[in-house]
């Protein structure tokens, strides 16, 4: 993996280990806690980089095309990682996951795909360098986050 050095600076070691093991769909977790920590770490990083773009969209930070592209690249990678870590019986404890994730699996999967589709559009907008398009796409991506959180995450 070419970007491993960069990842090491960004990502907790446990997450990297999981990432390398689970490049495919089947993540392996020895304990429920490992799965919860893994998915929360990926979601946390996704949120952090989404927030950086948010600051640009709001005008709190100057627009830098390369920086936004780099943020979207992290989001794209992170956006695929949390889902296999929603293993059965992993709600409760340190997790805010709602039981509906498992009782409405098809809806949950649709919500992941919806978000990944929006992130792909955000990536295209970032590459185009069109700040107006980035703003629009940032808004619809944020909606896709919110709609899943409303349905599947406890407050
Ligand atoms: C398909 C559903 C879904 C989508 C889409 C989704 N999330 Fe989440 N998110 C969750 C769930 C469920 C949790 C709670 C996970 C847990 O605690 O086990 C969560 C937790 C989080 C957290 C808290 C992580 C932590 O440190 O505990 C952040 C930040 C976050 N999401 C950001 C985002 C952002 C930003 C997006 C959109 C780019 C997004 N999420 C899209 C379901 C989703």
TrEMBL record:
Record keywords: Electron transport, Heme, Iron, Metal-binding, Signal, Transport
Q: Name one Pfam family in it.
A: Cytochrom_C_2
Spell out the protein name for this chain.
C-type cytochrome
Give the range the annotation lists for the signal sequence.
1-27
- What superkingdom heads the lineage? Bacteria
């Amino acid at each position: 993996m070419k970007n491993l050095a960069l990842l090491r600076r960004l990502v907790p070691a446990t997450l990297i280990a999981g990432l390398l093991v689970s490049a495919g769909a089947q993540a392996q977790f020895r304990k429920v806690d490992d799965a919860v920590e893994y998915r929360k770490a990926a979601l946390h990083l996704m949120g952090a980089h989404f927030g950086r773009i948010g600051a640009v969209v709001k005008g709190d930070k100057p627009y830098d095309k390369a920086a936004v592209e780099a943020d979207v690249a992290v989001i794209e990678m992170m956006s695929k990682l949390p889902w296999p870590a929603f293993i059965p019986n992993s709600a409760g404890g340190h997790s805010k996951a709602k039981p509906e994730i498992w009782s409405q699996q098809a809806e949950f999967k649709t919500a992941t795909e919806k978000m990944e589709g929006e992130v792909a559009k955000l990536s295209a907008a970032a590459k185009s360098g069109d700040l107006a398009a980035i703003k629009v796409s940032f808004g619809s991506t944020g909606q896709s986050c919110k709609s899943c959180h409303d349905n599947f995450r406890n407050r």
